[in-house]
Design a protein that fits this description.
2 copies of one chain form a homodimer.
Chain A: E1 5-10, H1 15-25, E2 36-41, H2 47-59, E3 65-71, H3 74-77, E4 83-86, H4 98-119, E5 125-128, H5 133-142, E6 152-154, H6 157-170, E7 178-179, E8 182-184, E9 192-194, E10 199-200, E11 203-204, H7 211-223, H8 225-233, H9 239-254, E12 262-267, E13 279-287, E14 290-293, H10 301-320
Helix pairs in contact in A: 1-9, 4-5, 6-7
Chain lengths: 325, 325
């Protein structure tokens, strides 16, 4: 058995956290041969509820779960940690402008970046789930100058998985038959789910669905899926967000399948003309705990325009929090 | 890849259901080589919420999930199903007597037993989670005369896992070091968590902890754990109950570890002098999709008394619903 690794989860008593921690302890994220120590971080007013989550974790008798550490202090929560999943964030409340949302969260994520810089393992792998995820990632990374910026990523895997599911349903295939989906840009309504390179059963999906279906149905369905789930459940997506977070880390650490790729929001290196340093979702392959952007994809004029639009939104967001970088 | 099997879950939009269905779809219950079709059953007023759960299941793009069927009609929910997890039950409300709780649930579970008898696969494996679980199981089985009664079981695995975790914590060991825990009897406050045969790191735990600790701390902690979690979380245990349900089915279908056993509430065959036919929790080993009661354990006078007391409660419960058997 390998030595245990530490996984820090912020907002661990929230709905996504509750859907996430049990699956990590069961070995679904890092493999069934990898013992874990969970370091669960919460705000002070959620510590009692977090205690209840820890009791339930204990009650599951997970053989891989070696310890659970609870804290409202980032210095403890991030101590020597190998993986961090930053789930907790301030949600947008009624009457709040997007700018307020961004600046309020900027404060949280700059503090967490500093704590990671000071306390975490030097090769920590960070996934930001809390919104606005891309810009929160940028802030956290900027505040952790001693950590490789490539190790700070944001989640667009839920969008990626949703897009795969829509294609599977439309083409009457299993989701396992769908490969090479791409989400470009920001995890927001400007994201661009791109089926140009997507395959179903190894064949181009663009031969199976029309461009007008993609534009008028597929793209808005993926972009607005979160709201549709709130309408049905009366609560926002928690289990599917947690699942996507597990998928993101699993792919990153254990690798992607041969011939396929996944979508991750990562620091742009200028590929496809995207402003370097922006946290932008690209198609990536993963191996040996690192990722590489898929190169050489043909980009149509339509795609180009969509990719620029979501890039522009990220540039605007960066502008709003420039003082924190 | 094996052909898909059907798993029916009742109360699938509830909290335990929400913690359960994603893990089954991810392959944690029946193995990562076993595709599944989920048949989710709910009451009519929960069908909209259930639709939201199904959207999230779709959004996870689980390669093993071949289909999701939603219904409020047991004839559809149990059609040709191979596994059923009966989670939905009427909860005890303020001022309700235990007798009322038992008879109200008896009506639900007799109807489900009839639907299973009429529509399910002949070798269906049934786990009842909804309380009062043991007596609900008895009723469901009695109303499904064409199905082998041995295939109807109730869950005491959460109690079993909780007991293991308490022993691990007390002896400063990992839970993976704890084996041969036993829960006897009813999934209620009369249950008897028995450490007489329990091993830690292969050695008798009775050499490591005192009888007075077991009686005054261990037993009440296990029995009252559910209430302690409600106090902390402000909500009842959902993820740990779902986890125990997965463990129960996983052990039953895929087998128990060599030299270890688990606790399952099953129809008594008279072993240890327990009234035949009662759904009583015993230590069992599992192999080839069936279980066997562990025989020949030495029972102390103290244990005997505890085992009788929980048996008596089950006899009393059976008396209350005798007209439905």
């Amino acid at each position: 058995m390998k030595p245990p690794v530490s996984v820090t989860i912020t907002g661990a008593a929230g709905n996504i956290g509750y859907a996430l921690v049990f699956r990590i302890a069961a070995g679904q994220m890092l493999g069934e041969d990898q013992p874990v120590i969970l370091r669960l971080l919460e705000v002070p007013q959620a510590m009692t509820a977090l205690g209840g989550v820890a009791m339930e974790l204990e009650d599951c008798a997970f053989p891989l779960l070696h310890d659970v550490v609870l804290s409202d202090d980032p210095a403890i929560g991030f101590r020597d940690t190998n993986y961090a999943m930053l789930v907790g964030a301030k949600p947008r409340t009624k009457g709040m402008e997007r700018k307020d949302l961004i600046t309020e969260n900027a404060r949280i994520f700059s503090a967490q970046g500093k704590a990671i810089n000071e306390h975490a393992a030097r090769d920590i792998h960070v996934l930001v789930v809390g919104n606005p995820a891309n810009t929160n990632t940028l802030i956290a990374s900027a505040n952790a100058p001693d950590i490789n910026p490539a190790n700070f990523t944001a989640m667009t895997r839920l969008d990626h998985n949703r897009a795969m599911a829509q294609i599977a349903a439309k083409t009457n295939h299993l989701v396992a038959d769908v490969t090479r989906m791409t989400i470009w840009g920001n995890h927001s309504s400007t994201q661009y789910p791109d089926i140009s390179h997507c395959l179903v059963d190894g064949k181009p999906v663009t031969d199976m669905v029309s461009m007008s279906w993609a534009i008028d149905h597929f793209t808005p369905t993926v972009q607005r899926r979160g709201a549709a789930i709130i309408d049905a459940r009366g609560a926002s997506s928690a289990a599917s967000a947690a699942d996507a977070a597990i998928d993101h880390m699993h792919s990153w650490i254990l690798g992607t399948d041969e011939g396929d790729w996944v979508s991750m929001a990562i620091p742009s290196d200028g590929s496809y003309g995207i402003e370097p340093g922006l946290i932008y979702s690209f198609p990536v392959t993963c191996k040996d705990r690192s990722y590489e952007i898929v190169q050489g994809l043909e980009i149509s004029d339509y795609s180009q325009e969509k990719m620029r639009k979501t890039e522009q939104e990220l540039l605007d967001e960066r502008e709003m929090i420039a003082d924190l970088l």
